[in-house]
Amino acid sequence: MLLSQGRLRQSIFLLFVAFVLASGVFLFKKVLYEKLPVPRQHQSEPSPSPSPSYSPLPKPTPLYKPKADSRPDIVDNFPRAASAKSSSDLPQIPPWNKPPEPHIEEKTPLFIGFTRNWRLLQQVVVSYITAGWPPGDIYVVDNSGVMHSNKNGLLGLQNPFYLDYKRLTDVLGIKVLTVPTLQTFAQLQNFFTFTALENGWEHYFWAHMDSPVVSDEEYEEEGQAYKSLYMRAATVMRETMQPGYGPLAARWFAYDRLTLVRTEAYVDVGGWDTLIPFYMTDCDMHERLWMRNFTIEDAKAGLVYDVASAIDDLELFYRRKAQEFKRHDASSPPPPEAPAPAPVGKEASRNSPAYHELLKKLDKMQRSKSEDKAGRNTWQSAQQGGQGEPFYRDGAGFEQGVSMTMNFGRDVFEAKWGRAECNIRDAGLGEDDAWRVVPDWEKEDVQQKAIEDREQERKERLEKEEEERKKGSG
């Protein structure tokens, strides 16, 4: 009986060992099988992913603004000059306006800045020449930003930044100065002053390119002979050069459309603030001059206009009858005709019908500019050509960029003086207040806040002093 029980236990033990060994073999094979690569034919193919129910968006492409309306091509507004080789091929300057020979003793340089619109530039240059300004004293500053492209004749008439370099220098006889890059109004003004310093000019004139001039042929100064616009401007300059005249900075002829500058005064105040590029920079400059006790005085020399367009044929400035010359399209070759003789008869005298015809046209152009609902400076964006030429800029884009820069300048002016209005001195500010006053300091709520802040600072200071006193006594 005992033997049977022993055998039973042994059988159970053997069965248990066999079960453990079998289980171990099974587990070993299972693990080994899972780690070994399964033959490709035994792998189940993954089920395909369901197709998306939408198509992915394509890569964004540029979206363009509507194209600007096309504008008609401009034509040159001085046909006779287009066919001329020198000033001798042009009509004669009205004899009563001819510059004196020899030149007067004083230097009379006149700067005219140019960026865009050849027709207006040529008009203002011709107007000064026919008003008696010596051509050799006129300096057009090419601020088109196209480097030597105009000098080398690489731009076409439809390009807003085009000017006829050879016509200005070889035919009209003036000088052209080219700045290396596009400058703002404030920078250009400092260039005028710097050029005056370089040449030792104690005075200089500058003019707007959209402001043609005419000698006042009806003006009679008591006890004196007739004077051209040039000679009257020179007389004004001589007055300012007299000993004891006073601390003059500038003389304005029709505001600053034509300006006489005393170089030393502009240097004394540090020149124009170039952080204020366009509008409000004149206000900043003039106020700082007045803060230094310089004076700016009005003067008269002739008729000075403010226009946004140009006369179609500038020969009218030479006081010629319409029937004395043949008009033609400047885009076609000029006719091979000899220059017409100088005006004769009634048209060769002062205050003639041709003179009044010129004034009538200029008056109409000036009214048109002031009444234009699109703004006063539409002439600046009047041209859109020049595609494919050196330094090409999109006309509308350039105008937008300049406008943004103008707005930036207004913000700088307001930050500098704490106010947007021009009458800085009337508000009680001096030159040492620049960049030191808080924005909108004149407003009642800002003033009240400042009073409260000062009162709070006073209380905190007293509390701090009291604490220090207690610590010292303890």
Walk me through what this model shows:
By secondary structure, the protein is an alpha/beta fold. Helices cover 37% and strands 8% of the residues. It has helices at 2-35, 79-82, 118-130, 165-171, 185-199, 229-240, 263-268, 281-291, 353-371, 395-417, 444-473, and strands spanning 110-114, 138-142, 175-178, 203-207, 213-214, 248-253, 258-262, 295-299, 303-304. The chain has a 7-stranded mixed β-sheet with strand order 3-2-1-4-7-6-8, with helices on both faces. A two-stranded antiparallel sheet has the order 5-9. Helix 4 links the parallel strand 2 and strand 3. It is flat and about 160 Å long. The N and C termini lie far apart (107 Å).
Write the layout of secondary structure elements.
Blueprint: H1 2-35, H2 79-82, E1 110-114, H3 118-130, E2 138-142, H4 165-171, E3 175-178, H5 185-199, E4 203-207, E5 213-214, H6 229-240, E6 248-253, E7 258-262, H7 263-268, H8 281-291, E8 295-299, E9 303-304, H9 353-371, H10 395-417, H11 444-473
Parallel strand pairs: 1-2, 1-4, 2-3, 6-8
Antiparallel strand pairs: 4-7, 5-9, 6-7
SS element count, helices: 11
Cα gyration radius (Å): 41 Å
Q: Share of helix among residues? A: 25-40%
**H/E element sequence:** HHEHEHEHEEHEEHHEEHHH
Q: End-to-end distance, in Å?
A: 107 Å
What is the total tally of β strands? 9
The averaged pLDDT comes out at 86
Adjacency order of strands in the biggest sheet: 3-2-1-4-7-6-8
How much beta, percentage-wise?
5-15%
| Residue runs with pLDDT of under 50 for 5 or more positions | 322-346
Biggest sheet descriptor: 7 strands, mixed
* Helix-strand makeup class: alpha/beta
Shape descriptor: flat
